[in-house]
Specification:
Keywords: Polyamine biosynthesis, Pyridoxal phosphate. GO terms for molecular function: ornithine decarboxylase activity. This is Antizyme inhibitor 2. The chain has 467 residues and is α/β, with parallel strands linked by helices. The chain has 2 domains: 204 residues, Alanine racemase (TIM Barrel); 131 residues, Beta Barrel (Lyase, Ornithine Decarboxylase, Chain A, domain 1), CATH 2.40.37. It is 31% helix and 19% strand. The chain is built from 13 helices and 19 strands. Strands 3, 12, 13, 14, 15, 16, 17, 18 and 19 form a 9-stranded mixed β-sheet that branches. It has an 8-stranded parallel β-sheet with strand order 6-5-4-11-10-9-8-7. Helix 2 packs parallel to helix 13 and helix 7 runs parallel beside helix 8. The longest helix has 20 residues. The protein is elongated.
């Protein structure tokens, strides 16, 4: 697609941080340029080249599936704009997310409002802004939609049985198979249009067969709908795809399982459009967080309880051992490290400065800047002696970090610095050229769509998110 080829370098160029030989460790060859920064605040480097690469990888692995990016995972504008340029759709869960993607020119037919439980005012907002594709899983929601958005095109969200996910969404959302017929009949009575079925196996899914079972269940509900006169034509297979290479299950393994199940239950040519809602898949590995040491405390090795202070710390420690050095950094669990609680991650620091050949290591722990005694990032670490101002970086920090942070104690979200190296940009252009050839109309398939020209959407070189 000429539009993509013409504007992909623009999407990187406006956001680019050029390589400097003197700069430090980088993301995908792009330096963090920590030593050059006069500001001492924590900050992100977002490698948009990684996002583009993930998109092309998705299209190759799941050729029948249209990706709708889950904005809730990371709503930073650079990511949203890049994916919009590449033709992705968007999975929105609220009025705010709908407004975000529409503010950069994404058309309403590329938005699905997937929250099954919506406030009436937000249903009306979706109606007034042309968003018709919406999810539901209960009769009350059907009634709200029938009154507030009668022209909505509804997708019935069904529950999945997957105890091997890190976040089981079906604990809260999804209709059981037993209740699906009643919901379809109720929708018929209310004159609400049902166009498809959706499911989500849960975040961090490691059970490949969960996708197979869910696709089979969706087929059963399609047949229920056909018996009631529905002509459903949409299957939403949700998310749950890994975003890093160290995951227990590789993305290509999941894709192969999905493709096999689709061929069995929804074969090509059956008239059903397939979409998915990847979130962490796109952004987890694209973001690196840099924090610096703002304080340290060398804890004496006196027996706990000698002055009362140590025993109190031991009581709060999950490991029960007293680390000799406590380091305080300028981001914590109320900020970007909220992923420790909400996303079950264990971030591991990388030391930016290069110590001597064999520096002594000390048992250490990392703590956030807030006044909460539970604001602990990591313990049981072996680190060289660090000083105030030293930098640490954390990789794979793109998923549910920025999106879940708060302004507790008045701390603001770290600045985002978008980056794409010249080499990465050149490689992505070549990949897109090859993809355009493979998906050309000659083969009977559509080209990669260019949703909107980035030349008309100047991107900031950095982005400060208000809390």
């Amino acid at each position: 697609e000429p539009g993509v080829l013409r504007h992909i370098e623009h999407s990187a160029g406006v956001l680019i941080q050029m390589e400097r030989p003197s700069a430090g460790r980088g993301v995908g060859g792009v330096p963090l340029a920590i030593s050059c920064k006069t500001e001492k605040g924590a900050f992100f480097v977002a490698d948009l080249g990684d996002v583009v690469k993930k998109h092309l990888r998705f299209l190759k692995a799941l050729p029948r599936v249209r990706p709708f990016y889950a904005v809730k995972c990371n709503g930073s504008k650079g990511v949203v704009r890049t994916l919009a340029e590449l033709g992705a759709g968007f999975d929105c869960a609220s009025k705010t997310e709908i407004a975000l993607v529409q503010s950069i020119g994404v058309p309403s037919d590329k938005i699905i409002y997937t929250n099954p439980c919506k406030q009436i005012s937000q249903i009306k907002y979706a109606a007034s802004h042309g968003v018709q594709l919406m999810a539901f899983d209960n009769e009350v929601e059907l009634g709200k939609v029938a009154r507030s958005h009668p022209h909505a095109r509804m997708v019935l969200c069904i529950a999945t049985d997957n105890p091997r996910s890190s976040a089981r969404l079906s604990v809260k959302f999804g209709a059981t198979l037993k209740s699906c017929r009643r919901l379809l009949e109720t929708a018929k009575e209310m004159n609400v249009e049902i166009v498809g079925i959706s499911f989500h196996v849960g975040s961090g899914c490691i059970d490949l067969q969960a996708f197979t079972r869910s696709i089979a269940d969706a087929r059963l509900v399609f047949e229920m709908g056909a018996e009631l006169g529905y002509k459903m034509h949409l299957l939403d297979i949700g998310g749950g795809f890994p975003g890093t290479e160290n995951s227990k299950v590789r993305f290509e393994e999941i894709a192969a399982t999905i493709n096999s199940a689709l061929d069995l239950y929804f074969p090509e040519g059956c008239g059903v459009e397939i979409l998915a809602k990847p979130g962490r898949y796109y952004v987890a590995s694209a973001f690196t967080l840099a924090v610096n040491v703002i304080d340290k405390q060398e804890v004496p090795l006196d027996p706990p309880g000698s002055d009362g202070r140590l025993s109190r710390w031991n009581d709060a420690s999950s490991c029960g051992a007293e680390p000799p050095i406590l380091y305080y950094v300028n981001d914590g669990i109320y900020g970007s490290f909220s992923c420790i609680f909400f996303d079950h991650t264990c971030p591991s620091p990388i030391l930016h400065k290069k110590p001597g050949p064999e520096p002594p290591l000390f048992s250490s722990s990392l703590w956030g800047p807030s006044c909460d005694g539970q604001d602990r990032i990591a313990d049981g670490l072996q680190l060289p002696d660090l000083q105030v101002g030293d930098w640490l970086t954390f990789e794979n920090m793109g998923a549910y970090t920025i999106a879940a942070s708060s302004s507790f104690n008045g701390y603001q979200q770290p600045q985002i610095n978008y980056a794409m190296s010249r080499g990465s940009c050149h490689n992505q252009k070549k990949r897109i050229e090859r993809a355009c050839v493979l998906l050309s109309p000659v083969a009977g398939k559509s080209q990669i769509p260019c949703a909107l020209p980035l030349s008309s959407l100047p991107l900031e070189s950095r982005e400060q998110h208000p809390s």
